[in-house]
Amino acid sequence: MRKQNPKSGVSSINTDNNNMKTFLLFSTMCLFTILTLNAQVPNSGFENWVNDIDGNYNPEFWTTSNSTPDTSVRPYTPAYAGNFSMQVSSLPVGGGFVIPGMAYINYTSHQRPTQMTICMRSTVANSDQILVYYSSWRNDTMIAAVGNCTFHIDSTMSQFHCLTFPITYTRDVMIPDTAQVMILAGYLSSAQAGTSVIVDEIILSGDDNGISETSTDNAIELFLNTENNQISIYSMQSILSSIDIYDITGRTVYAEKTNLNFEKLSLNSFASGIYFVKVQLKDGEIAVKKIVKE
Questions:
Q1: Residue 177 near residue 109 (C-beta atoms within 8 A)
Q2: How far from the centroid of its chain's Cα atoms is residue 241's Cα?
Q3: 47, 53, 244, 285: least CB-packed within 10 angstroms?
Q4: Per-residue model confidence (pLDDT) at position 39
């Protein structure tokens, strides 16, 4: 039996209802916070740094090109916000060779942001570039492709500028489960000494609305035979128009025009790693699949 308040005559059930409303509001706020955090890049302000198992000092959750004693990624102060930013620099490795500095993160994401803002400073050597990549996928199907979301910075910025890059999608009806952000200081195989970028406060915003969990991506079938490193690509819906393969940095490593509904490709000449296969049909349908060559 619930007790009556002797002064007001109001049952304590009202208090219980208020407590329940407060609890539900708190729970909703917590859920909203969890969903919001899930959409963002972990350690996007680069405040937390840790030593990995090889003794390299990296931003927490990020993978870098650091390889003790060679260091191309390090904390930087003064930061744009907080205590630290992340500096990524090209790295001379001797014999006149320079490799790009790299930092990237793979993280769980069930959101489809429409833009990515990064606050940065840059020093770009002659004929060099800084590259920023965003991609997302569901299982092995690419949703936001590296090739479509590659952004180039070819000028020096002595002060922090917050740049916003658009994010476009290759799949209209799919929600991702994984996303990646990658930053390269130096243009792939032609990186130049002295190229460096300081980044801070990576923020994803916007939402690509009107999507569902249901995929209609049945037009293109792709299979990887790991025993002979061969890809089979097949379409019942239409004729294949083009096949492009990108490595994890967005560099095109294979491109072919075709007019068949079935193709086989060998990966024997490819280095081990992650690749993205973009297939386009004559009717305009496009699919991007992620594959891993062991």
A1: yes
A2: 27
A3: 53
A4: 58
Whether residue 123 has pLDDT greater than 60:
yes
Q: How do the domains of the chain map onto residue ranges?
A: 12-41, 49-205, 221-293
Q: Which CATH number fits domain 49-205: 3.40.30.10, 3.40.47.10, 2.60.120.890, 2.40.10.10?
A: 2.60.120.890
* CATH number of the structural domain 221-293: 2.60.40.3080
Cβ neighbour number for residue 27 with a 10 Å cutoff: 10
pLDDT at 154 over 80: yes
Local confidence band at 189 (pLDDT 50, 70, 90 cut-offs) = confident
Domains 49-205 and 221-293 share a fold: no
Helix (H) or strand (E) holding 23, with range, is helix 13-39
**Unique residue bearing structure tokens 């997302």:** 136
**pLDDT one-digit tens code per residue, 211-233:** 333 333 456 788 888 889 999 99
Task: Please check whether residue 285 is in contact with residue 237, taking contact to mean a CB–CB distance below 8 angstroms.
Answer: yes
CA nearest to 196, candidates 212, 184, 214: 184
For 70-124, give the DSSP string: B--EEEESS-SSSS-EEEEE-EEEETTEEE-EEEEEEEE-----SEEEEEEEEE-
